[in-house]
Amino acid sequence: MTLINHLTRHRTAAGxxxxxxxxxxxxxxxxxxTVENRVFIPSTVLALRLAAALGTTVHDLFELETSxxxxxx
Amino acid sequence: xxxxxxxSTIRTVAYGxxxxxxxxxxLAALLSPAPETLPHWAPLTAGIFIAxxxxxxxxxxxxANTAASLDESYREDQRTAAVFGFWGAIGCGVALWLLDLGGxxxxxxxxxxxxxxxxxxxxxxxxxxxx
Lengths: 73, 131
Fold this sequence. Notes:
- The complex is a heterodimer.
- Helices cover about 60% and strands about 10% of the residues of chain A.
- Chain A is mainly α.
- The radius of gyration of chain A is 12 Å and the shape is globular.
- The two termini of chain A are about 15 Å apart.
- By secondary structure, chain B is mostly helical.
- Helix content of chain B is about 85%, strand content about 0%.
- Chain B starts with a helix and ends with a helix.
- At the A-B interface, helix 2 and helix 3 of A face helix 1, helix 3, helix 4 and helix 5 of B.
């Protein structure tokens, strides 16, 4: 499963550093960095917190790669 | 007040130091012609020392920063590091059994080696995540 995330774009648009976003959602800066670099897939709870902190939705932040979505029943 | 980032750094340095002591002791025991002369108290002392350092740092950092430093990516790294430690123990145990060094030596080396692998793997995973 390939997860595409637009976290960096939304974070920079909000004018936040990784550290600031990390503080806002209660995680370490490393977690934000690994999510943005697709090293770590966040939990549902963290994804919801990120979306809330950035004033957007989880679907705007994360999506499955298109080829995988075509195979989804 | 210690930030979550600083607490993670302190913890990573502590893990690295203890990991080097443990892995170094295992290597020294393997290579030494007289392993019984090695400071057997070194790995335990290192472990107790870093536990005190990490606990004290977490106390100063406070519950919010401590929780942030122990977030889900840390727990994921911990699980991954444990896997490395497990397979390191298996591999080390098998290798030492083949070398036929005796039960006491095998146990001492395997235990300290697997501990060192676990701690150092944690350090690598943490540093990888920060880059």
